[in-house]
Amino acid sequence: MAYLIIAAVCFFSSVVGAICGIGGGVIIKPVLDATGVMAVTTVSFLSGCTVLSMSVVSLYKSLRAKRDFVFDKVFATVLALGGVVGGLTGKELYQGILSRLSDTSRVGAIQAAVLMLVTLGTLLYTVFKAKIRTRHLESRAVIFLIGIVLGIMSSFLGIGGGPINLVVLFFFFSMATKQAAMYSIYVIMFSQISSLASTLIGKNVPPFELPVLLLMIACGVLGGLVGSRINRRIDNRTVDRLFMGLMAVIICINIYNIFRYM
Fold this sequence. Notes:
- The protein is mostly helical.
- 80% of the residues lie in helices and 0% in strands.
- It has one domain (2-261).
- The chain is built from 10 helices and no strands.
- The longest helix has 27 residues, at 73-99.
C-alpha cells in the first residue's frame, strides 16, 4: 500500500510540476510528510532525486519542442549557476539546522512553515499579478544573485524550486507563464544536481530503500514526459488556473504538517 501511495504521489506531482514549472517536489514533499510513510530526512532526499529526474526529462522535451519565445541560454546559464551556489548553501543550512535539533522531525515543521508562507505569497501574487507592475532586469550580477536565492530555497526545502521560481521570473523578468515554467525547470535541474552532490560528498545520505528510490525516479520521469506534452497543448490562462488551485491545496497540507510535527 505504501508503494502505491508513493508511486501515485510522485507521478501526479511530476505531471503537474512539469505543466506549471514548479518541479513537483513542492507537492511530493508535503504530501509524503503528511502520510508519514517515511522519515522527514528521507523524504527530503528522495524528493530531491525525483525532482532532478523529472526536470532533466521535462527540460529535454521542452527544448526540443516548438515554442513561441526565444530560450536565452546565456540568461538561463547565469541564473542556473546562481542556483548551483544557492543549492550548496541551502544544503549546508539544512544540515546545520538538522544537527542542532534533538528531534529531527522538527525540521519538518520548519520546512512546512517556510513552504506555507512562500506558497501563500505566491498565490496572492498570482491572483493580483495583472495589477502589479513587473520589471525587466538585465544585469548578469543581479540575475546570478537571484539564482542564488532560488537555489537556497530549492535545496533547503527539498522541493526542487516550487512556486517561488515562477513568481521571481514573473516579477523581475516580465515572463509569461509557460516561458517562466521552462526557465524554472532549468534552474531546478542545476540546483538539485549541486544539492545531491553536496549530500553524497558530505556522506549525509539518510537511510532509504533502493526500490523506493527507483520507483520515485521512474514515476518522476514518466510524469515529466506526460506533463511536458500537456503543457504544449494548453494556454497560459489554463496553466495559471491549475497553478492557483494547486497553491491553495499545498497551503492546507502544510498547515496540517506544521501541527503534525510540532
